[in-house]
Amino acid sequence: MSDKAILDENTISELTEKIVEALKTVYDPEIPVDIYELGLIYKVDIDENYHVEVEMTLTAPGCPVAGEMPKWVEDAVLSVGGIATAKVNLTFDPPWDISMMSEEAQVALNML
């Protein structure tokens, strides 16, 4: 049997909730809505060693903060207690569009 602690569903659920809250502190500087509600976060994976991998996109490939935003996201994830490492992978597949925004984001931007 492995010495590694297996993450149970409660722990994964609690960590995921805390990570989502941390991600909601990161904003696209051009849009007054956080990146989670904008739909820029595609996937968050947590392994048994508390390493977190985030797959995300940007509103546009030429986004002025493309070089900085992954670091902001890593820092936000690492602010959650117990996380060992954070890695952010940028993807543009599928490309982001406004349909990926939450209803909350659409309300905030007067789109509903």
UniProtKB/TrEMBL annotation:
Pinpoint the MIP18 family-like domain residues. 17-88
> Residue span of the signal peptide, if any?
none
State the name under which the record lists this protein. Answer: SUF system Fe-S cluster assembly protein
